[in-house]
Amino acid sequence: MALTKRNLLGLAMSGWFALTLGAAAKPLDGVTLNVASQNDQFAAVMAKLAPQFKDETGATVKVDILDYGSLLTKTTADFIAHSGGYDVITTDIVWAGQLAANDSTVELRPLIKRDSKEIDVDDIYPVLMKSLGNYGGKQVSFPFAGYANVLAYRTDLYKAAGLKPPSTMEELVADAYKLTDPAKKQYGFVANGQKGPAVAQDWMQYNAEMGGSILNAAGKPALNSAANIKSLTVYRDLFQKAAPPGAADYDWGGREESFRQGLSANMQTWSVGAPGYYDPKMSKIVGEVGIEVAPRGAGLPKVYGVGGWGLAINADSKHKEAAWTFIKWITSKKVHKQMNMMGAGSFLRKSELRDPELNAKFPFLPVIAESFEHGDGDYRPRIPEYPRIQDILGTAVNAVLVGNTDPKSALDEAQKAAEKLF
Predict the structure, then answer these.
(1) pTM assigned to the model
(2) pLDDT score of 342 more than 90
(3) Are 158 and 292 in contact (CB under 8 A)?
(4) Is the separation of the CB atoms in 335 and 329 below 8 Å?
(5) What is the pLDDT of residues 174-229, one digit of tens each?
(6) Ramachandran bin of 142, using left for φ above 0, alpha for ψ from -120 to 50, beta for the remaining angles
(7) What domains does the chain contain, in order, with CATH numbers?
(8) Alpha carbon separation from 236 to 206, 229, 285, 401, 407 (Å, rounded)
(9) Is 7's pLDDT higher than 80?
(10) Which of 23, 37, 125, 312 is deepest in the core (most CB within 10 A)?
């Protein structure tokens, strides 16, 4: 058939109609999802992947990237006002109790059951399925970004000092002092010291590893127990004698930066930061970093701290099914692996941590797998009262670090304040 102008016009019109019909056929065409995200590494990656979700489904995803305090404040206000400003919210592991108590988010168990084959729940580590959103039998969010508490250390400094990586907390403390040399701007220890959630969370991590707990066997506050006072004394001494100047003001970003820039020989941290140690654009210590499971006190069970973030659907969202579609998509095997290849550092699935391509890029993945297999998501109790307890400890511990009070006095006062919550 000769291609006349009329034929060409007909073909062009047919193509236009096909494209138009194809676009209209996308299941979520015209939907906009507003996502409130913590500003961890996964946030920027999520935003980069949003156009891909639109191409596949038709839905526009707008990612609002917020610091920890702003995320908690803005989403809490959204819940209280029932405004539905956000459809999907990244939720910290320790918010589960509060979300469940207030019915702020959609109960996901029916959706998970309905779509179990698509999700492949058995591929998700049980500790993450439980702790990143399940509380009191409610699934208030879906696991998204699992973090293992790990020890990052300078292999070159340990080798030069003739030391082996520490396997217990006692060894870690001793090594921190041995590797401190202020004349060389070399410090053996760094942790969060900043008043508020930063110092509260880091101290609770060290406290659990030293055998302490902020709750007693009956689930009531025990902030001023002998074990807790002892661990806070050790924590204070490390800040005073083995940490970089100004560490009492460090939050997660400051702590990570001090390690990446070569100031600190040891840092207990969340595994989400580990990809940055291998990136020469960010790190001055590429090739000189080891990652190990977090040490425990001598004789304590080998149970490792687990944290991270879930994805929750706002109970007031007008696009609940579309929000669930996005959650399934971003946590799927294919897309979640893609996220981590892009540096999100947010592992979730067994298949990811066994994946040859991911392991070749990030050789520390077996450490994360071991931590998830023997993980504890409750060393920071996920109870409804947790945010208030965190505020109390965030003030008390920082006051000790800056020298305004001593460990026993600070925790005695914190105990009195915590008891009022119960």
Answers:
(1) 0.85
(2) yes
(3) no
(4) yes
(5) 999 999 999 999 999 999 999 999 999 999 999 999 999 999 999 999 999 999 99
(6) beta
(7) 30-147+306-372 (3.40.190.10), 148-304+379-419 (3.40.190.10)
(8) 11, 10, 27, 5, 8
(9) no
(10) 312
Residues 184-199: tens digit of each pLDDT: 999 999 999 999 999 9
Beta bridge partners of 62: 34
The predicted-structure confidence for 357-373, as pLDDT tens digits, reads as follows 999 999 999 999 999 99
State the pairing for strand pair 142-154/304-313: antiparallel
Least confident segment among 280-284, 378-382, 393-397: 378-382
C-alpha 190/C-alpha 151 separation (Å) is 11
Amino acid in position 85: G
Pair of tokens at residue 379: 């060393």
Structure confidence at residue 24 as a pLDDT band (50, 70, 90): low
Residue with tokens 């699992």: 146
At 150, which amino acid appears? Answer: V
Quote the tokens at residue 75: 């989403």
